[in-house]
Amino acid sequence: MDVLVTGGTGFVGANLVRALLADGHSVRVLVRPESEKRALVGCPVELVAGDLLDPASLRRAVTGCRVVFHVAADYRLWTRTPEALYRTNVDGTRNVLDACARAEVGRVVYTSTVGTLGISKDGRPGTETTPVTLDEMVGPYKRSKFLAERVAEEFAARGLPVVIVNPSAPVGPWDVKPTPTGQMIVDFLKGRMFATLDTGLNLVHVADVARGHILAAEKGRAGEKYILGNQNCSLAEIFALLARITGLPAPRHRVPYAVAWLGALFMAGAARLTGRPPRVSLTAVRMAKKRMYFSPEKAVRELGLPQSPVEQAVGDAVEWFVAHGYAPPLPHVRGRGGAGS
Fold it and tell me: What is the pLDDT of residue 284?
């Protein structure tokens, strides 16, 4: 066994597993007994039971592995128990990296997020070195990932060959849960998107993110960070792209930030009473106040990160969601090349 992937049942992890298998690697995937494994259908992998908070299971999982991809994370923008995110994302990362250090793993790739990076005040896209502090992190998910990234840097400083990758907003196939960006696409396909906010994201094909992980393992410099992204798009531009691909109408109205904040505040109150996640969290609205624009130039230059057209990424996501019953069949989907399903 030469590769271990944590989080292999998730969106990015499952696409990484498929890319590794296509490259001829033997792959081991860490799974909890209750993990949903639909994203790994048809993948000839070794499933090993374990948990990020069980160090003994992690030591068993990394045994004999040359490369470890630590992709697993608790990705929730709303939770009644934020301390659970810190346990999984911070303590779990420390446990994984400690197991890798003890086993003298040859290379580790830690999956962070662009959410931990700074955003330039002058409007330029953020980079791996844009200044940022913990106080700028919005919500427990971002704060926990920021702290987990510091753990990865600590291990790198102590000699563990760990490379950090910061994916932006991946889109594409095998978004089983789906992610917030994927859910936005599903809601559009179901005709539930009536308005936009004045915000923006950096979109990237999930297949490019998976390939970026592999390139980071092969070419990345230990202790360095690499943004795995592609094109910066406003929310209005994303919906216009979806409209071109699907033939469905794009939202015509823009919701003022204050109105969105008040609506999310009301839903947060209801969520506290019912225990059910709000349709739109306050954290998501607060995050949307800034355009999450970033530059992948370093990863393109040093790793050779692919830059598949964003239209292809969104189109592949649309086709996958429709084919797997997340949204009704479309009147037509304009022809494009795909990156796989």
Answer: 63
Per-residue tokens: 121: 């005040």
Side chain identity at 26, as an amino acid letter? S
**What is the pLDDT at residue 337?**
44
Q: State which residues form the domain around 90.
A: 3-177+203-230+293-308
Phi, psi of 46 (to 5 degrees): -90, 120
Is 262 among the domain residues? Answer: no
Q: Domain of 140: which CATH number?
A: 3.40.50.720
| Percent composition of the chain: helix, strand, coil (DSSP 3-state, to 5) | 45, 15, 40
- pLDDT reported for residue 256: 67
- pLDDT at residue 198 above 80? no
- Sign for the CA dihedral angle at 21, 24, 25, 28 comes to positive
* Three state DSSP letters for 79-120: CCCHHHHHHHHHHHHHHHHHHHHHHCCCEEEEECCHHHCCCC
Using an 8 Å Cβ cutoff, are 109 and 213 in contact? Answer: yes
Residue 105 lies in a domain: yes
| Total tally of structural domains belonging to the chain | 1
Map tokens 């609205």 to a residue. Answer: 285
CA-based nearest residue to 282, from 307, 257, 301, 306: 257
Q: For residue 78, tell me if it sits in a domain.
A: yes
Residue 271 resides in a domain: no
Secondary structure class of 298 (helix, strand, coil)? helix
* 309 contact partners, CB below 8 Å, separation of at least 6: none
| Residues 246-291: tens digit of each pLDDT | 999 999 877 765 655 556 555 656 656 677 776 666 566 556 667 8
Residue pLDDT, tens place only, 289-329? 678 999 999 999 999 999 999 999 999 999 999 999 999 99
Burial 276-298 (b: 16+ CB within 10 A, else e): eebebbbbbbbbbeebbbbbbeb
Cα 185 from Cα 290, distance rounded (Å): 20
